[in-house]
Each structure stands twice: as C-alpha cells, then as structure tokens.
Specification:
Blueprint lengths: L7 H6 L7 H31 L3 H11 L7 H4 L7 H21 L1 H11 L3 H8 L7 H7 L6 E5 L2 E4 L4 E4 L11 H15 L12 H13 L3 E5 L2 H16 L3 E5 L23 E4 L4 H9 L4 E6 L28 H21 L3 E5 L10 H6 L5 E5 L9 E5 L7 E2 L2 E5 L10 H14 L2 H27 L4 E6 L2 E6 L9 H7 L2 E2 L8 E2 L6 H20 L14 H22 L3 H4 L19 H19 L3 H20 L4 H22 L4 H6 L5 H21 L6 H31 L1 H22 L2 H4 L11 H8 L11 H6 L1
Parallel strand pairs: 3-15, 5-6, 5-7, 7-8, 8-9
Antiparallel strand pairs: 1-2, 2-3, 4-10, 9-10, 11-12, 13-14, 14-16
C-alpha cells in the first residue's frame, strides 16, 4: 500500500520541485484572463478618448488658471490694434450710447441699482454680458435696466415708459405671445382658485394634463416638478436607479440646467467622474456608447445642439472673436437629424435609455417638440418653460420601467424624488389651458404660418445686410435665431448695446440666442428688421468694425495673438505679484501713482540717451554716499575682470563675484538712505530685492554642497557650485528682464539690461574720486541698523530714520 507522508516537513516536500501540468495550465489561464481584461479595459479607454470632447475639460482647466483683468480707458478702444483716430470715433460712440441710456432709462437705472445690491442673480447676469477685459468700463458707462412694468403683445414696457420689442423670449418661455400666457394664467387661476394652495391631494385637472402630455410625448408615465433643472435631476436619478448604472453621457457644449451632475465644464467646481461628454455627430461617440453600454445610465441630448454642434450655447460673454460663434446651415441640420436617428438605433441595440432634454425645444420646434420635428422618439423626455402656460414648471416623461422609484424585490432600496410644490394647482390650471390650445389643429396651423413668415424674414434681413455692406447675418432653427458676424473683430459684443438703444429687448446672453413668438405680425417683423439694420449702421459708423489698412490689416490671427498675449501676461503677472517671486524679481507696480511710466526709445540715439538718463537717475537716487561710491568702485572693477574670467574660470568668477556683490550691496543697505519708491520707478532691483539676490547666491552653493556625496571634497565641488551660482544669476537677471518685456515691451527691457551690463564701466569712470576722499569723509557715520531695516521694509526716500512712535505703529 502507498504510504503518504504524515509529518509537516514531509507534507511540504510533496509540493516542492517543478510545477505540475495542472498548476502551469491554471497559472496560464490566470495570466491570460488578466491580459484579456487589461486589453479590454485599454480598448474601452482608447475608444472613449477618441470620442470624448476636450472642450469642457479644457474650458474648466482654463477657468482655474486664467486671471481677471480690465483694459484701461486707453487700451479699451484700441484693443484690436486700431489707430488713435478710430479709437476717438469709438470713444465718441460710447459717449453717445451712455448719454442715450441715461436719458432713456433714468428711472429704470436708478431702481435697478437698488435691486442689484440685493439680488445676487442680477449681479451675476449684469457682470457676464461682455468679455471680461471690457466689463469694468462697460458696467460703469452702460447700465442695462432690468425692471419692467407690463407687456403689450411682443413689446415690454419699462419704468420709464419705453416700449421695447422683445426677442429674449423670457429665456425660452414665450413661444405663443405674452398676451396668451396672461390669458391662460388668469383662466387657470379661475379653474383652481377654490382649492387654493392645497398640496398632496390633486386637483382633477391634473388628470386632463396627464392624458394630454402622454399623448404628446408618446410615453407611459409623467412626473411634475417646478423647473427644468429640477426635472433633469429627477430624470437622471431615475435612469441611474432603474438601470443600476452610473455613467451619464452628454454631448459637448450642451446645456442641461445648472445642476452640477450634468455640468462637466465651467460653472461647476465639483469633481465630476460620472459624466462623459462626447463629440456631437461623431461615429466615435457611437462606438464609445457601444463599448461602455454596461456602464451608461442614460444618453442625454439637447436637440437645440443641432443649431451649433459641439459648442456651448452662444453668448456675448465669450464673443471675443467672430470665429467663436457659428451656426449650422441647412445641410448640417439635415445631417444632425440623421445623426439623431443613428443614435436612437445604437441606444436601442445597447439597451441604453435615450433622453431628450426638451426644456427649451419642447413645444417650440413643433407642437410635439423635437421628437416630432426630427422624427425621433426618446425613452425619456424632459419638458419645462412654456409648458407651464406662464407658470414655473418641469415635467419628466418616460417609459414605465424607467420611472419606477422603488425596487419591488428590495423594499429598502428607493429613489427618493419628490417636491412640495409638484403639481401645484395654479401651475396645473395654466398648464391645462396651454395644452388644450397646443393640441388643437389650429395650433399646427399657427406653427406653420409663423415658421414660414420667419424664414422669409431671415432671408429678407440677410439680403438687406448684404446690400448695406454690413458684416453680419442672421441664422435660425425654427423660431430660435442668432446673429453671426462675418468678419474678424474684438467688439462684436457691442452690438447688443446698439440694439438695446434702438429699443430691442435682449436677455443677458445678448445676441447669442434670440427668439420670436407667435404674436409677431408683419409690422413687428418689419420693425425688428429696421432696428437691426439701423443699429448695425450706427456700430459701423462708430468704428467698431474697423479692419485696418492694407499694410496693417486687423485679422483673426492678429486679434487672437493680441488676446493670447494679454491673457498670458496678466495671468503670469497676477500670479507672480501674489507670491514671493514679486519681491525676489522686484516687479514694478502695474497701476496707481507708483506705477512707472516708460516711453520706448525709437532710435539708437534715443536708446543711448535713455540708458544714460537712467544711470544718472540711479546715481541721484541711491549713490550719494561717498563710502558707497568707493565700495562700488571696488566691486565694479572686480565685475569688469569677471566679464573676462567667466569664460575661462567659472569658479574664480564665482568667488570674486560673491565678494564684490556683498561689498556692493553692503554699501547700499548700510550707508545709503532708503529709496524704495525711486528705485521702483527706475524699473530695476531695489535694495530689498537685492537682499533676496544675495540670499539666493548664498543658498545656491549650500544646496549644491548638500547634494554632493561624502567622498567628494569641498574644492572638487566648487565647479558644481559655480554652475549653480551662474544659474541663479541668469534666473534673477533674465527673469526680471522678461517681466519688464511683458509689461513695458522689448525696448524698455533692453534699456534696463544694457544699463545693468554697462554699470561697472560707468561706475569706475564716475566714482574713482571716492578713492581719495573716502578716508576723510564723514559719510561713515551714516551706517546704522535702523537704516538697514528701513531698506528691508521698503521705505521711501528719507524714510530711514523713524521715531519710536512710528516704529510702534509699523
């Protein structure tokens, strides 16, 4: 009989030696599974990267580093490089606009200033009407009133009695005309007023609304809410709950409300890991959906994106150049319709819910919304805005299996979605009136009639703009339209203020998203065209669309280069100013009375005179002490020798240079009175920053020594230390030169650099008499500890000696 080992050692020995075939095969299977999983994950990542839009991530990254700045009065009017005569025309145009605003909207402006102090919503919209470099002056000169008393057809009446033709559409609510909504709100109140604000029990009118909404949406169930954003939150939450998946797919630039759960770009500070923004109209996006179907809770589409695919909603805030705003042509819109059908097919194949965000497009593009317009039916649809009949509302429609808020198999697993004011009786009453109208054959005829009228108006306006040689055109998707600028320019955003001055009411996004309502008649369309053309002519005549001269044209490239330089410069300078580097590199003040004024020299003779003038000013500011002059004489002599030795013996240059630098700086810090303000006006290093330079020179060798191994001797390490010293020198000198270049231009930076390099030669020529008088001068007595501290504190001239009371205050 076979005997098996029984001792622990014997049992262990059974598993020693070469692996068996079974063990090898098992290990091979494990490795193959790991490699297959890694390859699968790599494939999904690769497919996702191909389909992911970089725009939201790039914009969010830029929002975190780009710093705010404002153009001053001089640069404001020539930010595109226009000459002074054009800047004068623009300034006069701005003055005329400001006067007109003050006269037309006096009462509204006075009242709105009070309101702006207390409503953060208005403060936000008022700040974000134009590109940020121009905001300060625009807010000071052109106060947009935000208060209104009544509406009369498509006109809005403000506190001053002005009647403005409204193309804002109340952010998408006004589809049918304000008078209709007022009538529906009144009728809805009459039908529900006896119930009052009773919540919980439902008014019977809700049942009527339910039937009509289901008929329009072609879906099984409905959920009522108080806003479009709230409805989107509900829809996404229910989709994730019922699919047991977390990933939400959106498309680049699409807006789905202010909830951070569907906002991967700027405007949301929360880290987003469950939202995937894909490229619109891209086959790669369809492949990504197929590859990640088991992770995707829903795919959300805002059908309005067909108007500007892969771009955020157009807004004058970001209208920095004409290229930023584009609108789809009819061919692109046809392709978008085909794209939606392909997306519908892929979502069906992958069993991924397709959601239409029709908060804006629902009942605007057609009585049945974008589903009817494009002929594509979604698994979930979100409505809002106009559906409320003038009252706030949000509605989610969906298939029954996607609208469930509880798990029948797990009683504690629920999706808690509910709201106090959901199905409010007054909202339900106004909604009922609207739905009863929009579901009639007469409504279909109104949609068709206004649509044809508006298409004709678009063509008519574009023909007149072309005939008048005006650089803009209008484009539309049903009754949604936008203004497109057909030439480069930095001031296209100004057009909104000319339109307002002509009596056109806009939303805070300006000319980016405009609307017409069904109560526009032929006279209204003619009036709107007249105001558009007149405003464009005024803007052209005021010089805002100046394109330069043949030898110096203003192009998209020149504008982009100027903007890039401005943003890079101000971001770098503000970042530097907030840190220690501003002190180390002695960054001059940018604004205020202490900001240096520097006029670039035009000729070589002027360049030489500017260098010598700064040498004289430098001497008068901080080289009046005889002892300091003598120290400069010695250190400058050593520096001149260093100019030669640095090429042959860097170590000797470092040793002698450090000694001469300590000697030179001691003369300033100990014997000279502080003159921080005058040194700043000379654009160079002041005594305080020079102390940082000396500290850097001291730390560089120490750091180099600490990095050396123990078996390397001190003298052998000097070469490495000398290279560190040279690096520190280049950092301080070139860093300061670069900052001057950014702030004052290349020629001024070269004036400072040439002065610095030639200072040792002029010091020797000027200060050699001090070698005779230094031994008998009384200037030795000026050396005090307080004088040194005053230098470090950045005291102005004659600010060295302080009384005990001043010291205590400081």
């Amino acid at each position: 009989a076979t005997k098996f080992p029984t001792t622990p050692v014997a049992r262990a020995s059974r598993f020693e030696g070469p692996m068996t075939i079974i063990q090898s095969f098992a290990l091979l299977i494990v490795w193959a599974a790991l490699l297959a999983y890694a390859a699968y994950r790599g494939y999904k990542i690769f497919i996702t990267l191909l389909a992911t839009s970089p725009t939201p991530f790039g914009a969010r990254f830029a929002s975190g580093i780009l710093r705010s700045f404002s153009l001053d009065d001089d640069k404001f009017f020539c930010a595109d490089g226009a000459p002074e005569e054009i800047a004068k025309k623009r300034r006069a145009g701005m003055d005329n606009l400001a006067r007109s605003f003050d006269e037309q909207f006096a009462a509204s402006q006075k009242a709105s200033e009070t309101v702006l102090d207390g409503i953060s919503d208005l403060r936000f919209t008022d700040t974000n009407r134009v590109p940020f470099p121009f905001q300060k002056l625009v807010r000071e000169r052109l106060n947009v009133a935000t208060l209104a008393l009544s509406s009369e057809g498509p006109h809005i009446v403000d506190l001053d009695g002005n009647r403005s033709l409204d193309v804002s559409g109340s952010y998408g609510v006004n589809v049918c005309g304000y008078d209709n909504y007022k009538r529906w709100m009144e009728a809805g109140l009459q039908r529900t007023k006896d119930l009052g604000p009773v919540l919980g029990p439902l008014h019977p009118i809700v049942g009527e609304n339910l039937a009509m909404i289901k008929a329009v949406s072609k879906l099984d169930e409905v959920s009522f809410h108080m806003s479009g954003t709230e409805a989107i939150m509900c829809a996404v939450r229910l989709a994730a709950f019922n699919t047991r998946r977390e990933l939400v797919v959106t498309f680049a630039g699409a807006y789905h409300g202010w909830w951070d759960g569907v906002q991967p770009g700027p405007g949301n500070e929360r880290k987003i890991t469950d939202v995937l923004p894909l490229k619109d109209m891209s086959p790669a996006s369809l492949n990504a959906i197929r590859a990640r179907k088991d992770e995707i809770a829903c795919v959300i589409v805002n059908p309005l994106q067909g108007f500007n695919p892969n771009s955020p909603p157009p807004n004058d805030l970001v209208l920095m150049t004409a290229a930023i705003r584009k609108a789809a042509d009819s061919e692109t819109l046809d392709h978008y319709a085909v794209w939606l059908k392909e997306l519908r097919k892929v979502c069906t194949e992958c069993e991924v819910p397709l959601m239409f965000d029709e908060v804006y497009t629902g009942f605007r593009m057609a009585p049945g919304g974008a589903q009817q317009y494009y002929g594509v039916h979604a698994d979930m649809v979100v409505y809002g805005k106009t559906l409320g009949g003038g009252m706030p509302c949000g509605v989610v429609c969906g298939k029954k299996e996607l609208m469930r808020r509880f798990d029948p198999e797990r009683p504690l697993r629920v999706s808690y979605v509910i709201g106090t004011f959901s199905a409010h009786p007054l909202t339900m009453g106004a909604m009922n009136e609207f739905l009863r109208w929009v579901t009639t054959p007469e409504a279909e005829q109104v949609y068709e009639k206004v649509g044809k009228q508006f298409e004709h108006w678009i063509k008519d306006v574009n023909d007149e703009m072309k005939a008048e040689n005006l650089p803009l055109s209008v484009h539309n998707l049903t009754t949604v339209w936008t203004v497109i600028f057909n030439q480069p320019g930095r001031y296209h955003w100004m057009f909104q203020y000319y339109l307002r001055d002509e009596g056109i009411a806009l939303s805070w996004v300006g000319t980016g998203r405009l609307l017409v309502s069904f109560d526009f008649v032929q006279n209204d369309f003619e009036l709107l065209k007249k105001k558009l053309v007149k405003a464009a002519k005024r803007m052209r005549d005021d010089g805002w669309w100046y394109l330069g001269t043949p030898d110096k044209p203003i192009t998209a490239q020149s504008i982009s280069a100027a903007m890039g330089k401005e943003m890079a410069y101000n971001t770098v300078m503000k970042t530097v100013r907030e840190g220690l580097l501003a002190e180390v590199l002695c960054l001059p003040e940018q604004t205020g009375p202490r900001a240096p004024k520097a006029v670039p020299p035009e000729t070589l003779q002027e360049f030489y005179e500017e260098v010598m003038r700064r040498k004289e000013d430098d001497h008068a500011a901080s080289h009046s002490n005889t002892v300091n002059q003598f120290m400069h004489l010695i250190s400058s002599t050593i520096f001149i020798i260093n100019y030669y030795t640095i090429w042959s013996n860097c170590t000797a240059t470092m040793a002698t240079g450090l000694c001469s630098l300590f000697l030179r700086q001691s003369g300033h810090a100990i014997f000279e009175p502080p003159c921080h303000d005058e040194e700043e006006l000379l654009l160079g290093f002041n005594t305080r920053s020079k102390c940082f330079v000396v500290a850097g020179y001291t730390l560089a060798p120490l750091i180099s020594l600490l990095r050396l191994s123990n078996d390397v001797g001190f003298f052998h390490a000097l070469a490495s230390i000398a290279r560190s010293w040279l690096g520190v020198t280049l950092f301080f000198v070139l860093g300061h030169t670069g900052l001057l270049w950014m702030q004052y231009g290349f020629r001024i930076s070269m004036v400072w650099l040439i002065k610095l390099v030639t200072d040792p030669f002029t010091d020797v020529l000027v200060y050699y008499p001090s070698a005779v008088t230094v031994w008998t001068t009384k200037d030795w007595q000026t050396a005090t500890w307080d004088n040194f501290l005053s230098h470090l504190n950045g005291a102005p001239k004659d600010g060295g000696a302080k009384s005990p009371e001043e010291k205590k205050t400081q």
